[in-house]
Please model this.
Amino acid sequence: MTASVPRPLPFPWEALDTVTRAEAGALRDARRWLARHARPHAIGGACRDLLDAEIEVRVGRIQPADAHPAAADDVGVLIAGADSGAYPVLVESEKALAARVVARALKRPEPVLLNDQPEPLSRVAGALAAVLMAVLRRAHAGVATRVLGAGPAREMASEALDRLGSDPWALSLTVLLENDAYAARVVLSSAALLSCPAPPWNGLTLAALGPTPLVVPIVAAVTRMTRTDVESLRPGDAIVPRPGERIWPTARVAHANVPVWLSPPSSELGVRGHLALDGRLVLTGELESLVDAEAPMDPDANAALVSVLADCPVVVRVEIGEAQMSARDWATVGRGDVIPLGRRVGEPVVLRVAGVCVARGELVQIDGEVAVRVVERLPAEGAAL
Model:
């Protein structure tokens, strides 16, 4: 009896999780907000000390708060910094998680919550608020925080609308408490997400890239051209730079060095240097504008180079698998052949830079385009992360 050959099926693109561009941007802003204001590592340590238990919080996706309202038995705590300009935050939690956290904080037996023995939500929420305040005081020494309200999550969400403003976002969290998983959310205002600037780019940030290669072109001449000018170019045409633009000298003498600039493709700034007669590139350190001749912009050579490297492109390969076959088989591959990739549908894809696996992720859709949601970041060898 001949064994049947499995029929190949197309990849189920329609089954991918769908994320909008607005949600992708909001998640990036939420991570910045958490890093600056919530201090996750400090909060995690305070939770472990107070609850005497291993606890881990994993960030999920972010969505408009009204897209998926809280469950009927969730509890909510509205908190804010004591400063008048502080943005309020609504913390929502499963009732079971709140009750267990409170019991551990009070060193009491953990409760067993049954549907026919409901605990008043307002009571659980008030106790959770007290525990949250204790955690925040330990994690944020010197930063005053206050409770604006506590109660059933749905009621708190309605009460918080005036404080959170229009279009609030809800960040989903998975809380692992001694290997038990619970759902929670943090509801933030759009203004809070936009209040955190991009992280600084400096020498430490550059060092964190480790051996990641950066491509820095050596620019010899720069001139401005319109799109029409570029499209009209034909073989044999000459491009004449305008007065004041960066150009190579038209004549060379034996002792002259050729001026050049290190500059990423998308940058109008470059670090000045020169090509020595023996072929070496010697940097003089000045950060200059490539499009307008002007004086050096930064006397610090190292700072100028770090600044320019911020715009260097990094090629990140997204690998959904790999095909291994002999040269004989590859030579006979034709249209319609199916090549196995050695990876099951739904397994994490690999993000690779210069041959090094730097992260793992899962495929998602953003407005009809394929994208990758990072689920694990792996520090590159030698990186100071």
Q: What stands out?
A: The mean pLDDT is 83. DSSP finds ten helices and 15 strands in the chain. The first strand starts at residue 17 and ends at 19. The radius of gyration is 29 Å.
